[in-house]
Amino acid sequence: xxxxxxxxxxxxxxxxxxxxxxxxxxxxxPDNIQGPGCTSDPSEVTLPGCSCLSRSCLTASCxxxxxxxxxxxxxxxxxxxxxxxxxxxxxxxxxxxLCSCSDLxxxxxxxxxxxxxxxxxxxxxxxxxxxTLEPIPTGTFVCEYAGEVISxxxxxxxxxxxxxxxxxxxxxxxxxxxxxxxxETFLDPAMVGNVGRFLNHSCQPNLFMQxxxxxxxxxxxxxxxxxxxxxxxxxxxxxxxxYANQPPLGVPFSHDTNTVQFNKINGxxxxxxxxxxxxxxQFLPLDLSILN
Length: 292
Ligand SMILES: C[S@@+](CC[C@H](N)C(=O)[O-])C[C@H]1O[C@@H](n2cnc3c(N)ncnc32)[C@H](O)[C@@H]1O
Ligand SMILES: [Zn+2]
Ligand SMILES: [Zn+2]
Ligand SMILES: [Zn+2]
Description:
Number of strands: 18
Number of domains: 1
CATH architecture: Beta Complex
Distance between the termini: 48 Å
CATH topology: Beta-clip-like
Strand order of the largest sheet: 1-2-6-7-15-12
Mean pLDDT: 87
Order of helices and strands: EEEEHEEEEEHEEEEEEEEE
Bound molecules: S-adenosylmethionine, zinc ion
Radius of gyration: 19 Å
């Protein structure tokens, strides 16, 4: 019998290739939740909506698209994949609960949730990982990296409390707010999270992360296919925020304080990368700023 890791909370089951005895201990949540130190509730509707009465919003008349630009094609693929025009990728805003357009508006993608059949399986040397049970075309929304949204102080406390051999799930995402200021979001799906918490790092990934705002100012960390992906391929993203040998676009980056004796920075041990890519940088990305 195939287990559904999401316990029916997603639109489609999340397969788990293992016995119930080996089920990882965490609470499944398809959406971000407010964790310690987080001042805004991710489930609260705080962004304004458009007054379009059309089935799908058009740039000529939609205040959402005029203010934030068109992020998706008419079929819901992310446009401007891996743009290198600037050091920071452009923020994506979808139509939201206050918009009067239909649920079928092409500016509603991440909010529709998981639609692909994914499977959590044992990779061998990378612990659990996620693979796809169906082909995924370039630009398709795959899943979110959802979990507890926490403050910098809480992220720092949790990170310092981690043992070197433990998995690190904390991701921090830095975005350019436009006015010269930087906004930073800290997300930890270790205790409460979705299928995204099982995605491993690759130095040559097939997914990339894009912060997307739907109803709330708190971004959702959405993962999109950076290339066409075949059935049974492992889904991976670059924890440092880069894609296909491109440097990080300002978002996101992660920090992994884990092991390997001979590579120490400021006393922190780095964990050996087993992504298997030709261009593997040998160690998982490590963010030190959180520990300053
Ligand atoms: C977000 S979790 C990914 C899921 C994890 N593999 C599990 O079993 O739950 C991140 C952790 O997975 C492991 N990991 C991820 N990518 C890896 C890689 N390329 N090589 C080795 N370990 C990796 C590391 O222990 C890292 O701290
Ligand atoms: Zn719309
Ligand atoms: Zn709208
Ligand atoms: Zn690697």
